[in-house]
């Protein structure tokens, strides 16, 4: 059994070929797709965060709106770039969104990926020591994790406007259990081990910032196993969760064939990212019987409990709901995911 959700980057462009032509379209269609996915029986609605881009950028208003419009589906991010975040303000927003959704928030965070502008986090007021912005992201994360647990740390005013409870004051609103639903987007095997040490769930994407020559899914399966081994060594009491994301398009209609027939020959790719090699996973597109066979051989999907389907959001809500439904009905039963 798998948790199956979608992951949207929320792209928008004024092009007449796009059904998502404005930031308003991207946000409102994201809510509508989450509602549709829940009605179809999917398990999660996740959104990517990019700054200075025609994509989704401010996750918490969107997450709160999705939480208010749905009742069962998990809502989350994949991922929030912690280089840009004020961790205390983020803790307030996350607590509020989680309470609105009734404890369904699954918050993916990370160091982030290359952005549209050079050192964009500096425009947000954050200056790393030297060029070590990765350490700054982890510092922000540690602070965020410290305060979302609900422990008091702030000295109360002796003459407050409103009465205070005794002791140091915590961030409010606090949502119990949220700490166990934080994920780290790990782009390498070493980062996956760090993720386990912090007691965070593992969110692995369709690329890894390293290449050993083995197929992407095998490298990712190694990453997942290293995460689980490190989790066990750290002695955490709960069972961790692991997600992978994939582009999967069953071809069951002429429209599917028009959009994705050329992807039926997709293969892994190796490229350069952040000055080093990176391996990118392939797109799965084809007739359902062939996809069931191909996906059964994906060792990383087998090792994960959660599968996030990357969706081409500019094709519109109806078409993306069709893609999700096709995976749930044509693939999931044959693979034992349902």
Automatic annotation (TrEMBL):
Pfam family, one: Bac_luciferase
InterPro entries in UniProt: Bact_Lucif_Oxidored (IPR050766), Luciferase-like_dom (IPR011251), Luciferase-like_sf (IPR036661)
Domain Luciferase-like: 9-257
Listed name of the protein: LLM class flavin-dependent oxidoreductase
UniProt source species: Terrabacter terrigena
């Amino acid at each position: 059994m798998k948790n199956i959700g979608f992951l949207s980057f929320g792209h928008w462009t004024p092009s007449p070929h796009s059904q998502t032509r404005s930031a308003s379209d991207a946000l409102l269609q994201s809510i509508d797709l989450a509602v549709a996915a829940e009605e179809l029986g999917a398990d999660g609605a996740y959104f990517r965060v990019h700054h200075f881009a025609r994509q989704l950028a401010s996750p918490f208003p969107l997450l709160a709106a999705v939480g208010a419009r749905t009742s069962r589906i998990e809502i989350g991010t994949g991922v929030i770039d912690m280089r840009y975040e004020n961790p205390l303000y983020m803790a307030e927003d996350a607590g509020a969104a989680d309470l609105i959704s009734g404890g369904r928030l699954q918050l993916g965070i990370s160091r982030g990926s290359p952005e549209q502008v050079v050192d964009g986090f500096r425009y947000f007021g954050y200056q790393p020591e030297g060029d070590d912005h990765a350490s700054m992201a982890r510092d922000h994360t540690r602070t965020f994790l410290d305060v979302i647990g609900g422990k008091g740390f702030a000295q109360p005013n002796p003459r407050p406007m409103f009465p205070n409870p005794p002791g140091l004051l915590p961030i409010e609103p606090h949502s119990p259990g949220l700490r166990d639903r934080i994920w780290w987007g790990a782009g390498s095997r070493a980062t996956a081990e760090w993720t386990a040490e912090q007691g965070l769930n593992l969110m692995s994407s369709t690329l890894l910032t390293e290449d050993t020559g083995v197929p992407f899914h095998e490298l990712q399966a190694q990453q997942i196993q290293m995460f689980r081994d490190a989790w066990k060594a750290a002695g955490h009491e709960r069972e961790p969760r692991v997600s992978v994301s994939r582009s999967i398009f069953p071809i069951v209609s002429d429209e599917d064939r028009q959009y994705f027939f050329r992807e039926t020959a997709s293969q892994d790719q190796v490229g350069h990212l952040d000055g080093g090699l990176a391996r990118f996973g392939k797109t799965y597109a084809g007739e359902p019987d062939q996809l069931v066979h191909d996906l059964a051989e994906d060792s990383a999907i087998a090792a994960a409990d959660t599968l996030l389907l990357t969706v081409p959001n500019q094709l519109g809500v109806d078409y993306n709901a069709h893609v999700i439904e096709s995976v749930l009905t044509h693939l999931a039963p044959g693979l034992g995911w349902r």
